[in-house]
Amino acid sequence: MLSSRLVQFRSMCLPVVLCSRHKRNIHVGKQLRCRSKPELYDVVVCGGGMVGTAMAAALGHEPMFEGKRVLLLEAGPKQNYNEPLPEKFFNRTCSLNAGAVSLLRSFGAWENILNARCQEVKRMQIWDACSDSIITFNHDSLENLAYVAENNVILAGILKQLDAAGDRVHVKYGATVKDYKLPGGQSFDTEQSKYACVQLESGEEIRAKLMIGADGFKSMLRSAANIPTISWNYNHVGVVASLRLAEPTENNVAWQRFLKTGPIALLPLSNEYCNLIWSTTPEESKHLMMLPAESFVDAVNHAFWSDEHKNSAAQYTNRLFDGLLTRLGLEGSSSQQLPPTIIEVDKGSRAMFPLSLSHATQYVRSRVALVGDAAHRVHPMAGQGVNLGFGDVALLRDLLVSVVYEGKDVGSLGHLLKYETQRQRHVVVSMASVDGLYRLYGTDVTPVVLLRSLGLQATNALRPLKEKMIQFAAN
Ligand SMILES: Cc1cc2nc3c(=O)[nH]c(=O)nc-3n(C[C@H](O)[C@H](O)[C@H](O)COP(=O)(O)OP(=O)(O)OC[C@H]3O[C@@H](n4cnc5c(N)ncnc54)[C@H](O)[C@@H]3O)c2cc1C
Ligand SMILES: *[C@@H]1O[C@H](CO)[C@@H](O)[C@H](O)[C@H]1NC(C)=O
């Protein structure tokens, strides 16, 4: 039912780009194979972002994978994690939920991140510019709300563990994938089409029993596997920046306010700094990017403090929020705290990027599996992008471990389909809910965005909230 909802959103189908086939390759019907007999790996992970690196490191630390050959390919250079962290915060951050923390902990990366730099979120306050409606979540009612960490810090923490896996994972940096040759059709019982094959820009070819695509939202492996994606555009832009507070505080609250033009959020980075994520119209974002530093700071403070949008919608939203609170069994709106005042924006930290949403209709093919943004890209505002990706990694790792335990083929479609089914059930529900609510609410926002971004088990919260919203829309 949810997948049919997804279709109702009149998503635009992206054109499917078939990978160019190299002339030297031998064509066998629709199937292609590598020219000679290049090196064979059990698993090749394509793309060394946070998700791909976590995939490789997780497999590298699995006792069941001892003796298996794992390779990670990344186009960019290796990040040096031995250098001391710059004093200035990076402007790209993620909030990590309990699931992400548990995956990272399973292969030792979590300690690295904790020891480097990250901030615990103990309280979350979400409120609406049009009303006094407010939701707060406290650490006491919800264990381990979330952690906020810079993307570079997360990646460095994972990389360190990848190195610790030693020879069990081979890594090639500066290795850009040029082309893939994948087993044709749904079966791969002929000798020619037995393995997946990747060709690098350098001309080198490598074969894999399983090729994992962690190559981001423009995934080349996804195109080569002929997997269509559904995508849609919010016509919204995310503006990020590192902001200094007027006064140091304990700073473990995440703030989000719904404005007419979109949600604005502050995530704590330290007792003096917050990361701003402001989702707004393209026009306003351009304006925000061009403002002098002081005016930009004023605009942020105004967005959190101004009363100008209060209106009669308050009644509706109040009802809505009350419904949510009652169903969640949470405290009411008595405990509103005032958001912090910003005094300064870090030079060079202001950046903007378009917000979009896309979903691969399938996550697997024979000898191919997609993880992370290659499979699904959500509203980055929600900050849950990487949490979903880490969820993919945890499930795929567990599945592959059991396949190896049973002595079966890691690239076999039968097993991979279990991964697809389980993950899509989770991801599609969350994407459809967020997008559906986004539309139903009529404004550009839903509290769900931050709920999920902070990794609450929002599936429970989503359903009653969605029902309320549907009632509201029907009335
Ligand atoms: C501008 C921007 C801002 C964002 N901000 C936030 C945020 O604030 N919070 C949040 O939670 N999420 C944010 N997101 C989303 C978040 O970055 C992603 O969900 C997350 O990075 C996905 O990780 P990934 O490893 O799946 O993909 P990616 O991070 O995209 O990594 C893909 C990797 O594959 C490599 N690669 C690609 N093609 C090839 C090739 N042909 N050969 C070899 N290697 C290749 C790339 O070099 C890259 O390292 C943002 C995304 C964007 C684009
Ligand atoms: C902020 O983001 C932009 C664009 O991604 C990047 O070029 C810049 O280096 C970032 N600055 C910091 C301090 O992270």
From TrEMBL:
Signal peptide: none annotated. Keywords: FAD, Flavoprotein, Membrane, Mitochondrion, Mitochondrion inner membrane, Monooxygenase, Oxidoreductase, Transit peptide, Ubiquinone biosynthesis. Pathway: Cofactor biosynthesis; ubiquinone biosynthesis. Its EC number is 1.14.15.45, 1.14.15.46. One of its GO terms (molecular function) is FAD binding. Residues 41-427 form the FAD-binding domain. It is a peripheral membrane protein. One of its GO terms (cellular component) is extrinsic component of mitochondrial inner membrane. It catalyses: a 2-methoxy-6-(all-trans-polyprenyl)phenol + 2 reduced [2Fe-2S]-[ferredoxin] + O2 + 2 H(+) = a 2-methoxy-6-(all-trans-polyprenyl)benzene-1,4-diol + 2 oxidized [2Fe-2S]-[ferredoxin] + H2O; a 4-hydroxy-3-(all-trans-polyprenyl)benzoate + 2 reduced [2Fe-2S]-[ferredoxin] + O2 + 2 H(+) = a 3,4-dihydroxy-5-(all-trans-polyprenyl)benzoate + 2 oxidized [2Fe-2S]-[ferredoxin] + H2O. Its main location: mitochondrion. Gene3D superfamilies: FAD/NAD(P)-binding domain. Its cofactor is FAD. It is found in: Mitochondrion inner membrane. InterPro entries: FAD-bd, FAD/NAD-bd_sf, UbiH/COQ6, UbiH/COQ6_monooxygenase, UbQ_mOase_COQ6. Belongs to the UbiH/COQ6 family. FAD-dependent monooxygenase required for two non-consecutive steps during ubiquinone biosynthesis. Required for the C5-ring hydroxylation during ubiquinone biosynthesis by catalyzing the hydroxylation of 4-hydroxy-3-(all-trans-polyprenyl)benzoic acid to 3,4-dihydroxy-5-(all-trans-polyprenyl)benzoic acid. Also acts downstream of coq4, for the C1-hydroxylation during ubiquinone biosynthesis by catalyzing the hydroxylation of 2-methoxy-6-(all-trans-polyprenyl)phenol to 2-methoxy-6-(all-trans-polyprenyl)benzene-1,4-diol. Component of a multi-subunit COQ enzyme complex. This is Ubiquinone biosynthesis monooxygenase COQ6, mitochondrial.
